[in-house]
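Can't paste images in this forum, so I'm doing it all in text. The chain is below; anyone willing to post the predicted structure tokens underneath?
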Amino acid sequence: MKTSKAVGRVGKDKILKIIINVALKLPSLVYLNQELNIIWSGRYLLDGLFFSVAGKMKALLILSDAKSLDIIDYEIAKQENYDSWFKFLARVKVNISRNDIQIFFVSDGKRGLHQALSELFPNIPVQLCLVHKLRRIYQIIPHIRGDGYDRLFARIASLAITAPLKEIYQSYLNILLGFLLSSDSDYWDKSRQEKLKRIIGVLRFQKSKLHMRYQYSRLINQDTTTNILEGINSFFKERLNLMRGLKKETNVELIIKLLVYYYRFHQFTSSKFKERNGKRPIELNQDIDRHKLGEIIKGKEPYSWIRNLV
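Text version of the structure:
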């Protein structure tokens, strides 16, 4: 980057040094949450994404609030499995349980995650994220490529996943089973038969958790189980991809910390929920110390909040 002649040339190492120094001065998320007296909605989202560090993959585990889309806490783990999820959830349990607000979780279908949830939160319902289910369908049958049967099977499966009633879900599943058991299927090539079997398997896998929203319809709605989880996930994926991975192990914690803070204080501009546009995830929390938050976000500069926090 070129700056004024008085400053001279600013290289990437200088920029990285500034970023690291800023991240070092930022408080922990738990400390900030307590200072702002945030009380979470009890509608919790859990997801993990992967990024590269010095050529090795690491997992970023994220716990967020479904109402505000604010990040409650996160963990950097060597891999996404039962041990990493249990360690993370055991740590955050104290924070999210302090007001006795525990309503439900939304997550993908990772077995290790569900095992950890069942052990640490045995009485809290867990709903599968619909987007993860839909994405799995389109991994089996590409959304654009494929013949008429492919598009038909994918469409029926997607209607089953997003069905407003359990009976409608079952009707769509029965249609797919009817195709599989029909005499016509004997004349299909093996690849088509295998695709259909795999799609039916996706619909049946962890069906009780996919259908948790029917059992708790007053708590869990369609919006909670679709794009919200992916919106947070895609935010981090986009920025981590732009960096093409992190080079030094020592910088990982600090750069991720700054990214998490950046997410919490960035303003929504194109949310499908129009009332969120122009607001930050952190200020969308319903129970929060508005005066203290106002002191943090005051200022006309885009990153005034960093200066105010530091």
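The two ends are 25 Å apart (CA to CA). The beta strands are 43-53, 56-65, 71-77, 104-107, 126-128.
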